[in-house]
Amino acid sequence: MISNKTIHKIIALLFLSTISVYSQTKAYPAPGNLVDIGGYKIHLLTAGEEKQCPTVVFFHGAGDIALHWNLVLPKVGEFARAVAVDHAGEGWSDHGHGLALNQQVYDTYQALKKGGYKAPYIVVGHSLGGITANLFAATYKEEIGGVVMVDATHPDVVLKVFNKETKKMEWKRMRLRADQPIKEVNTTPLSEPKETKSFQARRDFGDLLDKFSEDDRARFNWIYNERKWTYVKGQSNTYEAEIMQEMFTNKEKYNLGNIPLVVISGANKDVPEGDANWSSEQLVTHSKKLQKDLLKLSTNSSQIIAKKSGHNVHIDEPKLVAKAIKKLLKAIN
Fold this sequence. Notes:
The protein is 32% helix and 19% strand.
């Protein structure tokens, strides 16, 4: 005869199993707008009223998605039209013509125009999104009202990369890894969906998502830990090194003139461990120097030190980022 204790255990196991199956099968629809730009759709997470102007465009960093901006977005939506972009093949956006950063700039511009998001644009970029924001602003300079760099990547950044010869991770200037021509932007419509492959990603967020809503945390978990990640074989190259080398070598092409620029730099970061080529002290000194150097992109620039933030200033101090954008808009007006 089965005891009551055993029955309770069986019921509990069945209940947990049901939850597990449900969490693995529940899909989360795009929380923003999906804009077709010619055979593939780009996801734009938005806040604010349609009539509001200008449009503040947010670019996420490497490995992130538009949803990472969702602590800043509603605050900016109180005084402007705010739009965070999922790059093609990331978040809720379809795969398009590859992941090259210059292609992402073109795709974003097309999505904004076809989605009815009007210029002037204030572009905001975090981490690698700072490179994308700089490319966007330089490409469509006549439609740019201002630029905000949030602990943004500099073209001369030093990153920890894998050395195929030594089989070790080493600190290297990313731009010096450039080894091929930058792929041309593809402006033709996509006639049929890309054939994709998939893998199961896993990401431990730690306490990074503590400030986000329960719904957003569920979306993050679905994107990174439940839904399989898809990719197009042979189209995973972002041409980061090549584009950084191009921007470093031809600085005048990417200069913003007198377009208002705000550089927000995180001051409370973990000190990286060095190697035989770069000591920890050198890495920190170089990083601070690069943040200062970003100010040279415009003759109308200023820097804000986010004392309570690490690299993710938009998550650590979202009010500070929103306030900086609002101040920039007032200065423009």
